[in-house]
Amino acid sequence: MTHPRQLTLTRWVSMTLLASGIGIAGMVQAQENLRFAHVYETSEPFHKWAEWAAEQIEERTEGRYTMQVHPASSLGKEEDINEGLQLGTVDVIYTGNQFAGRSYGPMGIAGAAYMFRDFDHWQAYADSDLFQEIAEGYQDATGNVPIALNYYGERHVTSNEPINTPADMENLRIRVPNAPLYMMFPRAAGANPTPIAFDEVYLALQQGVVDAQENPLPTIRAKAFHEVQDTINLTGHITDSLITIVGGPRWNQLSEEDREIFREVFQEAARNNTEEIVQAEQELVAWFEEQGTTVNEVDRALFREVVEPHHLGDAATWDEDNYERLQAIGQ
């Protein structure tokens, strides 16, 4: 027979453990773990500043949110992580304007070839009312929230033979990301754009599946494309950027206070990304030449001339008003 005092003690221990369990469960429920997905290498600034953002969000929300960063296509290709925002399987991504433009056409304007005159024109757009209006339109269309533009760099063509004029690109098999706007430049120059997933490009170049690819200098280094291509042609055909986007399912769960924290953190990270990429672009020409890679200066006006007629052509996913407003920025 159990002694009453033992029974009381047993009940007390059981109640204490139950209360502790409830407390632990409450703590776990209060702390939300977010997933930040991107397709870039861990050696690139984008990953470094994504991890910094994760630390800052945990600190500034006093542990209400933690965030794990998944780099190098580990949660899927760029199309996949864009879909993941809608599904709620990822919470934050970096994505190109061209990919965002598949869901809301005007967003793609910042990813078109020779759309910007130079970096200063791009920066003025990133800070403009026009970008804010387009971002709001994207949010209305998708529910997802663009927070900031991160400078990605000027995209250049790498090849095994120098490219000096559009005629040199005739029938060139050039890898491009799998979004229609990336095809505007090569098609205008007479090349054959070939979409290949980012993590498969090195092998495709090495095996001769394609003759060329195009990316900014920091990405060419990070992905070691210079190991399998002899020449970097400084076409600068796209002044490219990545958008930091928070998925609608997650955004809708955030308090106004936490939304402001997310904005501040991701915008600060974007400024830091931009500064690092600008610095890298200034240093990398000499670095590539030291590696034995030919860096070929080209007359960009020749390439711009064949592309500009397409800015309001069949490939355009924006209207003439937005186009004219963008061209007027900084003038």
Automatic annotation (TrEMBL):
Pfam families: DctP. It is found in: Cell envelope. Keywords: Signal, Transport. GO terms for biological process: transmembrane transport. One of its GO terms (cellular component) is outer membrane-bounded periplasmic space. It comes from the Bacteria. InterPro entries: DctP_fam (IPR018389), TRAP_DctP (IPR004682), TRAP_DctP_sf (IPR038404). PANTHER family: PTHR33376, SIALIC ACID-BINDING PERIPLASMIC PROTEIN SIAP. Belongs to the bacterial solute-binding protein 7 family. This is ABC transporter substrate-binding protein.
